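This entry is retained here.
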Amino acid sequence: MIGWCNEMTSMSKDATVAEVEANASAPAGVSSSRKGAKGGKRNKHDASEVSKDRKIASNGSLAPWLFLLPAMVVVIVFFIIPFFNTLRLSFTNATLLNPGHFIGLDNFRKMFEDDHVKTALLNSSLYVVCIVPCMVFFPLILAALVSGKGKIMGFFRTSFYMPVVVSTVIVGLIWTNLLDDRGLINSIFKSFHWITKSIPFLTDRWLLLFSAMIVTIWTGLGYYMVIYLSALANVDPSLYEAAELDGCGPISRFFHVTMPGVRSTMVLIMLLSSIAAFRVFNEVYVLTGGTAGVGGQDMTMSILIKREGTGLQARTGYTGAISMLMFVILGTLIAIEYIIQRKADKDA
């Protein structure tokens, strides 16, 4: 048995040696053809893989545009096309029932001579000057106070945010009942004998405008507070610890750690609040019942556009000119605050 196994082993070795010698003695063309056949199969496989990769890449480059398509359609249909249509109308004498014709810059000349436009510009500009500092600093103070952990802090954050989600109608009813001649504030003042005559919060020009500002601040504090809370979460806690070791109190830490840490967010909120303040509509409209005050003295740019651009007597061409003026002013505000932000970033 052992002899038979040794014989089989020697035969397999001889066959292997013979195969190696045959390959060595084979012509060059035969060996190259074999290699070529193997290489051809490999090239075909690589080509198929490349084609598959190209198909995946082409599909991948198309997929983001498919996701963006609905948003792009909305922007084009509801923003870009109306903008250019408003620009076209500003150079015509069009009305609601009349397409009008080209009149050049007549609408802009009339606009700068219109007392209603001057009043609206004054009120909207005053709104920006008074509202923006409050919206930049008050929400930051609130965010610093409620940024801690715990259920009580969560309760305060929710409470401060509640006015943001309350509808404009409810806000108007609340503040009208508070500020009316027979409202809660005047009743309390009279009960303490601090006044003998009701304070005309809703009839005096300047009191009405400042009352609307208070409503704007009340409804906007929670919104900007949430933005500041997200910014405060990115401030390094070790900075507060180092300041505390150096003997800085809470106020000093607020001015030297908190405010520098959220500087870019402050510029962002300055931009957002400036645009919102100049475009103010709801607060003044609700408190005045749509009249914009006695004789329209509390008219803002948005209310003026609504008054001139709606109704059967709507002057759509003239309204387009007012809208273009508002667009230029807001664009200038955005450009100025963008320059301020760039400068702050470079200084940082």
In short: The chain has a mean pLDDT of 82. The chain has 14 helices and no strands. The radius of gyration is 37 Å.
